[in-house]
Specification:
Length: 412
């Protein structure tokens, strides 16, 4: 459980960050960096309930892998329960009522936000089950396991009210929560520093909380776009959502950067591109190659699914190709529902949940069948265009063995 003192200390640190942003020198530009790219042109939508709801800005999952959870424009936090049930109410702020907070054409949500709240950042403390919510009007709130009305924890720091509380992260070891006004806040995997988005200057900053540099701030990454929320990528690095590029024009090719993956050293190692009409506020990567995108403007949460780790044009069924060099292949699909790690790596770690249990069982079955997977020649069978779900399946020209393998894997 986070103490108020610790929360206030984190908030004060963020205020110091704000004062330093304008004076932080720029680093080397990330423009022109060539990195693997995910094509997010085609995405699955988790549509919000009918009406004028919009803006599922942040995306969170609980300890059982259930979700996503996301805050929306009428002040509620909703939970996704699968396609049959859809979204249901999980929590709401004190003062919320359906009658007073449901938007209409004559009464937009902007007229009721101060009463109903606007949940932006979400983060679970997985061990306790508490959900922490950064609400633009209510401050920092906490929700007990199971949902219901949220409890307001912090509304001011040293007598100064929190205005437009936006980001939140939780130390999974101690349960301490940190809040910030800048759009993004993430605690490092080793818990030694915070990574914070500086939107206007297009930077990520690193604020040290432990070690010899404790209490100091430095440039972490210089970005080609305006950043929003930052979330861990489960590899020691981070996914940062991008609003738009610095030099972006409203005309021309309908494609821009949606997000970047940054490694532990602050280097850009992967990008996601998609239509200019999409401006994600948060990107969260889950098992099975799924990336969930939140947005403050759209009426849905978008899901991008990796189809191959290390492939060219990853995510595009039409143009995707496996690496020419097997050493570049970092793991990927052998059928639509399952991903395999690269040879020599342990099985993927799936959280608890029906879908993830199916993935785990499928991976075990495929590993038992594909004894040739440990053979380097296995990679040769998968070079060239991907005969995946977006393409008409035709006999593959490389070898008859390859064709038979695909037929077997696809259950034909």
């Amino acid at each position: 459980m986070a103490s108020s003192a610790r929360v206030l200390a984190a908030a004060m640190a963020s205020l110091v960050v704000l004062m330093l942003l304008l004076f932080m020198p720029g680093g080397a530009s990330a423009a022109g960096t060539v990195v693997p790219s995910i094509d997010a042109t085609r995405t699955r939508h988790l549509p919000l309930p009918r009406g004028l709801l919009r803006g599922p800005e942040s995306v969170a999952f609980d300890a059982k892998g259930q979700g996503p959870y996301s805050g929306v424009s009428d002040g509620r936090v909703l939970r996704w329960n699968g396609d049959k049930v859809g979204w249901t109410t999980y929590t709401y702020s004190p003062g919320y009522s359906s009658e007073a907070c449901t938007a209409s054409i004559l009464r937009p949500e902007t007229a009721t936000e101060s009463q109903c709240g606007r949940p932006l950042g979400l983060r679970f403390h997985l061990k306790s089950g508490y959900l922490y919510v950064a609400d633009a009007y209510k401050g920092l709130m906490r929700v007990a396991p199971g949902g219901g009305e949220a409890t307001v924890l912090v509304t001011e720091v040293d007598g100064a009210p929190l205005r437009f509380t936006n980001g939140v992260d939780v130390d999974q070891v101690t349960g301490e929560a940190g809040i910030t006004y800048p759009n993004g806040l993430a605690i490092s995997a080793d818990r030694t520093h915070l990574v914070i988005s500086s939107t206007g200057p297009c930077k990520l900053l690193r604020y040290w909380v432990k070690g010899l540099k404790a209490g100091t701030i430095e440039l972490f990454t210089d970005l080609p776009s305006y950043p929003d929320n930052v979330r861990p990528d489960k590899r020691g690095g981070y996914w940062v959502a991008l609003h738009r590029e610095k030099t972006e024009l409203p005309f021309g090719v309908d494609s821009h950067l949606l997000a970047l993956r940054i490694n532990i050293d602050g280097e850009i190692v992967e990008e996601m591109r998609g239509p200019k009409s999409v401006r994600p506020t948060e990107v969260v990567e889950r098992k099975g190659g799924r990336l969930f995108m939140g947005s403050v403007e759209l009426p849905y949460v978008a899901v991008v699914k990796r189809t191959c780790h290390g492939c060219e044009n990853n995510g595009s069924g039409e143009h995707m190709k496996h690496p020419k060099d097997a050493s570049e292949y970092t793991g990927g699909h052998v059928r639509d529902t399952c991903f395999l790690p690269a040879p020599g790596l342990p099985p993927m770690e799936y959280p608890v949940g029906d879908e993830d249990e199916l993935h785990r069982a499928e991976e075990a079955r495929l590993r038992a069948e594909l004894t040739a997977y440990e053979d380097a020649s296995f990679f040769e069978k998968f070079k060239g265009p991907h005969p995946g779900p977006f393409l008409v399946r035709e006999p593959l020209v490389e070898t008859e063995e390859m064709r038979q393998l695909w037929l077997a894997l696809d259950g034909a």
